Amino acid sequence: MDETATVAESYTEMTEMLLPNDTNNLGRALGGAVLHWMDICGAIAGMRFANRQVVTASMDHVDFIAPIEMGEVAVIEGYVFNVGRTSLDVKVDVRAENPRTDEERRTTTSYFTFVALDDEGAPAGVPELTCPTPEEEALREEAIDGRREQLTDIVDRYDL
């Protein structure tokens, strides 16, 4: 296993066309379908970073801020922005894209934590995160700040 890995090495982008099986009675994406895509994207980003199998440990609060309409393309992007000894934090963003007009809009963002596993299924060490470019450092800082802001909003919203 490499001692270090970069934000860029973990970057993952997936696309899904929203079809009837993943829509509600309004012709919009089911929340569960979007969460499923986000979990897969985050896991792939984690596996690319750690070069190991990963499993979902947690997912932070999710707000669905805009719908994805049937026939639109969901673009799901994820990257590792922080690591522990065996865990990886992954930011996952989703946006909707209308393939006929090229119009795009942000639909949701969440933060996942995955745990890397060895061949026996036990937690395994992960590489140290490095950000060799200013762009990678900016992505990392954006994710850290975004997660902090989201957690602060939850505390304020629920008066915790």
TrEMBL record:
Matches recorded under PROSITE patterns: HOTDOG_ACOT (PS51770)
Uppermost EC category: hydrolase
EC number: 3.1.2.20
Signal sequence annotation: none
SUPFAM superfamilies per UniProt: Thioesterase/thiol ester dehydrase-isomerase (SSF54637)
One MF annotation (Gene Ontology) recorded for this entry: fatty acyl-CoA hydrolase activity
CDD domains per record: BFIT_BACH
One of the Pfam families matching this protein, by short name: 4HBT
Keywords of this entry: Hydrolase
Residues covered by the HotDog ACOT-type domain: 8-120
Descriptive protein name: Acyl-CoA thioesterase
Upper lineage: Archaea, Methanobacteriati, Methanobacteriota, Stenosarchaea group, Halobacteria
